[in-house]
Structure to design on (499 residues):
């Protein structure tokens, strides 16, 4: 029996609070399948009252529940069980995720689900090795620096990789003993809800992970504004991140913000151009082009520009577009009608700004009522154009030529964003100059996206605040506490004991 036959779509998605599913309390919203262009289920939103209940459950689980008090071994066992269950249910979760994101099923199975499971395994391993500090430099004293879980965390994630992104947030928060309330995107709650159910089947105590669903300005805003929330971990757009930080400031909750990007994929004539071409195509067209770390500005050295651009366009035209459930599909639909309109609008803006559309720039109604756009490649007049500056978040590549290393650096860095960059060259001095000069949180050399979980991930400038990764998450989801004591009784001035 195929997964499609054995998995049922829930008719309604509500909240998950204190270890139990709960009906939502607010408006009903459609959950749309982007490949079909029509609703397939209904989400009942959590209003502010239900957010209050969810935060209350997380607070009770933190203050009185077993999770923060369990030994590391016991928490590790649950995290590893979650990892195993996510792998065992990978087909089902991938199928659910596909229903409300349109991400190609093969990519979900091969990349998103293994990564989601690995997030739990990674943090299980990490907490088994992490150490606290002792200072003994001051004679006669020992000061220990201990880390304690920070409390209730609000975890907010977008629709472009719901399970992969929210699993990272959840694993990194709960591994260190925090409890949380998550708010996935209202467009894509299906697989996240099932993942949370599986986490409870793995023995996670009630109240450690709670889910509220709904729109950002309603449910998300109420969550971030709650005074019992001690940490806010947000992945999403830059403007939303700015608003979230303002709201969190009202009760001084620290934030990490993983935000947007307009990342430069820089191809030098000294590169293995075949590999650079493969990497550039993967960088912009995987995940239906909707990924924060997309290499969406492709800078190519002028001496090889014409040849590279022609081959890039040719390959983009040959991408197999269609049903994301089909094993042969390379590019699925965009996640929503709004995303489709946005991508098409940028093809017009490319022309208005003096650029040319080399391929694409149109919807594909021949594929049915889903939100399909043709892979789009534009040649921009210069880096100031909107297609070179704005995050478009779709299968939309902007090509720009450059002459020398200095030009490449100047163009790449002339962006409000600074998430990642890609450098393709086999010439060591070129690679060195680029890796030293690029103002981005990650630089990938001669490889497309390779996420090293141990290393910090995050952006410069408008691409984010803070980092994700082993040590960075430990620092974020814990509070430091210093305990000092003398090794021998110190001499004390005896106030009030004088003659
Ligand atoms: P949004 O910022 O619109 O939404 C992200 C999440 O925030 C959603 O759950 C949304 O809810 C919620 N939200 C919106 N407004 C508020 C608010 N006022 N208070 C609290 N929560 C709110 O981003 P998109 O969903 O459009 O996602 C795309 C963006 O995410 C892109 O810019 C992309 O670059 C970025 N991203 C960054 C990554 C990184 O690691 N740096 C990784 C992946 C994506 P709802 O949608 O339900 O309204």
């Amino acid at each position: 029996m195929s997964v499609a036959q054995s998995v049922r779509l829930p008719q309604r998605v509500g909240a998950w609070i204190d270890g139990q599913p709960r009906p939502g309390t607010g408006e009903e919203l459609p959950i749309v399948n982007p490949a079909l262009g029509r609703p397939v289920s209904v989400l009942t939103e959590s209003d502010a009252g239900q957010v209050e209940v969810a935060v209350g459950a997380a607070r009770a689980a933190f203050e009185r529940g077993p999770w923060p008090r369990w030994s590391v071994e016991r928490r590790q066992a649950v995290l590893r069980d979650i990892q195993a269950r996510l792998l065992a249910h990978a087909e089902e979760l991938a199928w659910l995720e596909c229903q409300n994101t349109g991400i190609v099923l093969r990519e979900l199975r091969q990349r998103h689900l293994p990564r989601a499971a690995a997030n739990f395994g990674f943090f299980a391993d990490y907490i088994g090795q992490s150490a606290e500090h002792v200072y003994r430099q001051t004679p006669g004293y020992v000061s220990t620096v201990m880390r304690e879980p920070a409390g209730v965390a609000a975890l907010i994630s977008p629709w472009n990789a719901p399970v992969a992104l929210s699993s990272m947030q959840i694993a990194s928060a709960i591994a260190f003993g925090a409890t949380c309330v998550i708010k996935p995107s209202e467009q894509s709650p299906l697989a996240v809800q099932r993942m949370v159910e599986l986490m409870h089947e793995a023995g996670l105590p009630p109240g450690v992970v709670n889910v509220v669903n709904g729109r950002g300005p309603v449910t998300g805003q109420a969550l971030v504004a709650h005074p019992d929330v001690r940490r806010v971990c947000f992945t999403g757009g830059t403007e939303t991140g700015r608003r979230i930080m303002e709201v969190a400031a009202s009760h001084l909750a620290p934030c990490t913000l993983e935000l947007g990007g307009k990342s430069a994929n820089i191809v030098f004539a000294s590169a293995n151009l075949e590999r650079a071409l493969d990497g550039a195509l993967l960088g912009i067209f995987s995940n239906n082009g909707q990924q924060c770390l997309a290499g969406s500005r492709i800078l190519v050295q002028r001496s090889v520009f014409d040849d590279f651009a022609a081959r890039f366009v040719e390959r983009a035209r040959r991408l197999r577009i269609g049903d994301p459930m089909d094993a042969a599909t390379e590019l699925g639909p965009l996640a929503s009608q709004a995303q489709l309109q946005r991508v098409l609008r940028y093809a017009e803006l490319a022309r208005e700004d003096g650029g040319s559309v080399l391929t694409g720039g149109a919807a594909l109604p021949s594929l049915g009522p889903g939100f399909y756009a043709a892979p789009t490649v534009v040649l921009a007049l210069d880096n100031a154009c909107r297609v070179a500056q704005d995050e478009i978040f779709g299968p939309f590549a902007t090509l720009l030529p450059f002459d020398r290393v200095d030009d490449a650096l100047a163009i790449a860095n002339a962006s409000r964003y600074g998430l990642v960059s890609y450098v393709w060259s086999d010439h060591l001095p070129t690679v060195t100059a680029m890796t030293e000069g690029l103002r981005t949180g990650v630089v990938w050399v001669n490889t497309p996206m390779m996420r090293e979980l141990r290393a910090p991930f995050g952006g410069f400038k408008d691409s984010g605040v803070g980092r994700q990764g082993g040590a960075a998450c430990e620092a974020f989801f814990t509070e430091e506490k210093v305990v000092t004591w003398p090794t021998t009784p110190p001499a004390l001035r005896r106030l009030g004991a004088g003659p």
User: Anything to note?
Assistant: The pocket of NDP is lined by residues 156-160, 165, 183, 185-187, 215-217, 220-221, 224, 235-237, 240, 243-244, 258-261, 292, 391, 393, 419, 464 (CB under 6 Å). The longest strand covers residues 141-149. The longest helix spans residues 105-129. The two ends are 92 Å apart (CA to CA).
